[in-house]
Design a protein that fits this description.
Elements: H1 2-19, E1 34-43, E2 49-61, E3 66-74, E4 80-91, E5 96-103, E6 108-117, E7 120-129, E8 132-141, E9 147-155, E10 163-174
Antiparallel strand pairs: 1-2, 1-10, 2-3, 3-4, 4-5, 5-6, 6-7, 7-8, 8-9, 9-10
């Protein structure tokens, strides 16, 4: 009986540690973890729309307290033409997701707050890029373990007009290794 109680205590401690590895709320973003193939649709400066291919790799960082998502865009020959990364964490005192997006080798940064609404991850932020300061809004929707859709809009005039700026159709090509 004594050994059974000890075994039960060890099992309870193991389960508690396993479920508390990530901050409460961050685990809701675990669908991101893995390797993704993306089809992108991007509004160009001249008003035309360009479609392209990209990849994304998302993984836990900072002892499981945040997720990093590395994004690479490719030209028609498979050469990398764009790199960016986001860091996502969860603030339980607010409660919301805190996301920062930066682009490698280009002027730009976005500071975003997001939350779950009706099965969608919905965010708003502010930042700047080569076109100036902007407000941003986005949604991740049609979310499953193997795919999601992303829509982002930007306003460079303080929210008066919004550009349907960027869309992604994402398909998971590799699950994370455990």
């Amino acid at each position: 009986m004594k050994h059974l109680k000890l075994l039960m205590l060890l099992l309870l401690m193991t389960v508690t540690v396993a479920f508390s590895q990530y901050p409460e709320g961050l685990e809701k973003l675990d669908f991101f973890i893995g390797e993704w193939e993306l089809t992108t649709c991007n509004l160009q400066q001249d008003g035309t729309v360009a479609t392209g291919k990209a990849t994304s790799s998302a993984y836990h960082i900072l002892d499981g307290q945040a997720i990093q998502d590395d994004f690479r865009g490719y030209d028609e020959h498979g050469n990398i033409v764009f790199r960016g990364t986001s860091i996502q964490s969860y603030s339980s005192d607010q409660p919301q997701y805190l996301i920062t997006w930066i682009m490698a080798g280009r002027k730009g940064l976005t500071d975003i707050r997001a939350e779950w609404k009706g099965g969608k991850l919905v965010g708003k932020g502010e930042g700047y890029d080569g076109f100036g300061s902007f407000k941003e809004r986005f949604e991740y929707y049609n979310i499953s373990d193997s795919s999601y859709t992303f829509q982002m809009d930007r306003s460079y005039d303080g929210g008066e007009t919004w550009l349907k700026n960027f869309n992604i159709e994402a398909y998971k090509i590799k699950q994370p290794e455990n």
